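User: Sequence recovery, please. Input:
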């Protein structure tokens, strides 16, 4: 069996869709960041969304991977700002009484 050589031509990665925050979302995001009352993961996601830079710039500035930046963008496009600021995985692990209290 003969294998074909790997092509030297590499297709470029698709450019991510730019994130456009409404004035209300931008204000809400700024207030969220100013308060500083969130888990570190949620705070990093909010920072990544607020920056308005390329994925590589955000990853470098905030010490996260480019996959994290892509995931934050995808989360925003799927569910808006609430999807970015709400930490679903944390809510799953909290006792029922703690979830209802917040």
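Assistant: Recovered sequence (102 residues):
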């Amino acid at each position: 069996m003969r294998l074909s050589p790997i092509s030297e031509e590499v297709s470029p990665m698709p450019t991510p869709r730019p994130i456009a925050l409404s004035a209300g979302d931008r204000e809400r995001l700024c207030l969220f960041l100013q308060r500083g009352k969130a888990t570190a993961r949620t705070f990093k996601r909010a920072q990544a969304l607020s920056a308005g830079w390329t994925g590589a710039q955000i990853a470098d500035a905030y010490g996260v991977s480019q996959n994290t930046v892509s995931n934050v963008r995808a989360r925003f496009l799927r569910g808006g700002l609430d999807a970015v600021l709400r930490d679903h995985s944390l809510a799953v692990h909290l006792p029922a009484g703690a979830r209802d209290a917040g």
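The longest helix spans residues 66-85.
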